[in-house]
């Protein structure tokens, strides 16, 4: 079941193989939620053991960071383009390679698409933690932002998939 992170979830043993992403869940996610900086969704089993998680936040990207052919389609008066940040996505090592990363990613993208109907968002942006993470997002048609490690998928693409 995918739900908002809550005190009942057991986050102590979470290990996705990346210390930053492990520590974020254990020590910072709760604070970020309290401060309204991000929302954290977790997939857990019936013992409340967290199998994977992702975070979402409001975000914006300067217009001139986008590839030229995309910039042309956007009004130049918008110096900053509203987006949604899928800030972190991680699956515990015990549950990797079983399709959970894909389930979490699709859940996150569907949620972003749904929110975009009520609050403008041009794209979902990710900030892959390493090359392997970038390859994962590339598999799902995320596009690299030139001169940045970030990647994005336009909401219009999600509309074609989920609309
Ligand atoms: C990247 C990660 C989220 C993938 O989760 P997962 O549950 O193991 O992935 P899935 O089993 O759902 O894989 C779905 C598909 O993506 C592919 N895939 C998984 N990891 C991949 C990677 N690093 N590069 C390219 N493809 C990848 C799988 O082969 C599978 O393809 P298929 O459907 O054609 O068989 C997970 O390995 C992880 O948490 N890694 C550490 C943290 C991390 O890198 N997070 C990324 C964002 S910061």
Number of strands: 7
What sequence of helices (H) and strands (E) makes up the elements? EHEEHEHEHEEH
What is the count of structural domains?
1
Distance between the termini: 23 Å
Shape summary: globular
Q: Would you identify the regions where 5 or more consecutive residues have pLDDT less than 50?
A: none
On the 0-100 scale, what is the average pLDDT? 97
Number of helices: 5
- CATH topology (level 3) name: Aminopeptidase
Largest sheet: 7 strands, mixed
Cofactors, ions, other ligands: coenzyme A
- Annotated CATH architecture: 3-Layer(aba) Sandwich
Query: Strand portion, in percent?
Result: 25-35%
Q: What is the CATH homologous superfamily assignment?
A: Gcn5-related N-acetyltransferase (GNAT)
